[in-house]
Amino acid sequence: MFGIIYSVATLTSATLFFWLGKLTDQFNLTVLGLITLGILSGFSFLLSSADTLLILFLSLLGLRLFGQSMISHIAVTAMARWFSKKRGRALSVALMGHPIGEALLPSLITFFLFQYTWREIWVGIGTCIIIIFLPLVYWLGRHIKLNKHDSYNSKQTKSKKKLIVSWNRSQVLKDLRFYQVLPGLLASPFIVTGVFFHQIHLIETKSWSITLLASSYPFFALSVIGVTFGAGWIIDRFGTVHLLRFFLLPLAFGLLLIVATDKAFAIPIFMILMGASAGSATIIISTLWVELYGINYLGSIRSMFFSMVVLATSISPALIGLLLDTGVTLEIQFIIFTIYIFICSIIFAILTPNLLIARSPPS
């Protein structure tokens, strides 16, 4: 029952975020961040007191919408707007939150569960947001020069002699380039989510132990962190478009490795390669829209794409599971994914000259 409630809350959150995300185009991001943190704290307290399925659903919906979706969206949008010359590196710092949290929070929460109930832990989370993160964001917000992103267009025009325009969401949906890059951009979240969801089936077919799998997770986290920083530097130096043709290839090589061998050394290497594609994907999908469509409507464009990512990641486990039930093994599916990745990479390479041309939105 909890899984069903969580899934419904996730899909509902993605639907609401499609509209809520564009608030970052309309309001001061520091103020919006403070409001979002306050609401997130409130839903933490609500979950701590959940005693009905309705309250549980509303709590999970609020945490997904204002936590994983909105607060991350504000951070990424702010970095993309406030930094131009070193946008890639700024975004790589902002995007560290998720992998660091994934690496530290499970052990930290497990430690606290020996001392407190889960309800008390959620009270503590809500309290920490109020006494630590709200004052910190307010203090940092006072030192931000808001005119940084206002002068972005003129700076870029002078330095790169390139026309920088801003497209709104409806104009982006009319642009053929958006649909040309979409299948490749959705490949990483689709495949990675599916692999993680069916990881137990994978290790059973390979006769690997659960201990081996668990010990390989740090390799994934370290790979995500390292590659995210590296990709940020590359983007600042060469641009996002030039990286598109390469970022999915580590995932393809990792999938081929799993298909080719049952040896235990394959799983940590696979985690490193999968983390490399996942790490570069997170920053690429945050900077590509700026390069193609400008910054004025970045919030609405990112929220639209994020909703598509959630839809893809919700379909992936079910589709892979359905194929398994019909007799299509994971090895065969991994080969199909690899072929798909190579096709997407070739398409990205072909599209590169066209994507580098600055275009005005349709009237």
What does the model show?
- The protein is an all-alpha fold.
- It folds into two domains: 2-150, no CATH class; 152-352, Growth Hormone, Chain: A (Up-down Bundle).
- The chain has 16 helices and no strands.
- The chain has helices at residues 2-20, 29-48, 53-82, 87-94, 97-113, 118-141, 147-150, 152-160, 169-172, 176-197, 199-206, 210-238, 249-260, 266-293, 298-325, 330-355.
- Helix 1 (2-20) packs parallel to helix 3 (53-82), helix 3 packs antiparallel against helix 4 (87-94) and helix 13 (249-260) runs antiparallel to helix 14 (266-293).
- The longest helix is centred in the N-terminal third of the chain and has 30 residues, at 53-82.
- The chain is globular and about 50 Å long.
- 37% of the residues are buried.
- Mean pLDDT is 88; it is low at 146-163.
